[in-house]
Amino acid sequence: MRTRIKICGITRTEDALTAIRFGADAIGLVFYPPSPRSVSVEQAQRIVKSLPPFVTVVGLFVDEDRAVIEQIMNRVPLDLLQFHGDESAADCSGFGRPWIKAIRMRQETDLLSLEQQYADASGLLLDTYQAGVPGGTGKTFDWDLVPQSLAGKIILAGGLNSENVAQAVESLHPYAVDVSGGVEAAKGIKDAAKIEAFIAGVMRGDND
């Protein structure tokens, strides 16, 4: 099965359209003000309005109040919610949208237990642990920590770029990959050539 591709941290309409043109399946909008890739509701509305059909719009939140999430959902048509903080399964549920839970991977992380804990999630997004940083570290983690039995439910993130994504896909066969910093010219500003090269790398991994 083809590995799906999400380009996260989109802040500009032109970057969203570039990602889709090269073959991305989903874009990620960051609603976490401390992030340099955060977008306002107005920015998000403009980006989503520009998208063609069959593109999944993912809203990323970090330990946000339910009321704030609901307010944003009422103004921005999000297809999928991504929770990137210390949210419990109950915190992630009840919004009337499918959701995924980000897991910051450490040597001692028990993914099989977490998969049961977040059983209602559509998938687990695996990112690199760095103290005080909820995501976007630009660093990879040890892919051997991922049980092969979970590969089909995994969205692989953390330090991916055009140089390592083919190996990641070939090694793990994740359901999807997620990239932000690895396709940027600057934080929040995507680079079209890097997006094209990244997606080509995913396709190489699928075919190897």
What would you say this structure looks like, in words?
The protein has 208 residues and is of the alpha/beta class. It has one domain (4-207): Alpha-Beta Barrel (TIM Barrel). Helices cover 31% and strands 21% of the residues. The protein has seven helices and ten strands. Helix 6 (165-172) links the parallel strand 7 (154-156) and strand 8 (176-179). The model has no long low-confidence stretch (mean pLDDT 94).
Contiguous uncertain segments of 5+ residues: none
How big is the Rg?
Answer: 16 Å
Choose one word for the global shape: globular
Number of strands: 10
Second CATH tier, the architecture: Alpha-Beta Barrel
Highest-level CATH class: Alpha Beta
**Class by alpha and beta content:** alpha/beta
Largest sheet: 8 strands, parallel, barrel
Order of helices and strands: EHEHEHEHEHEEHEEEH
Strands across the major sheet, in which order?
1-2-3-4-5-6-7-8
Quickly count the helices.
Answer: 7
First CA to last CA: what distance?
A: 13 Å
CATH topology: TIM Barrel
Which percent range describes the beta-strand content? 15-25%
Mean pLDDT over all positions: 94
Catalytic activity: N-(5-phospho-beta-D-ribosyl)anthranilate = 1-(2-carboxyphenylamino)-1-deoxy-D-ribulose 5-phosphate
Organism: Candidatus Thiodiazotropha endoloripes
Pfam families: PRAI
GO molecular function: phosphoribosylanthranilate isomerase activity
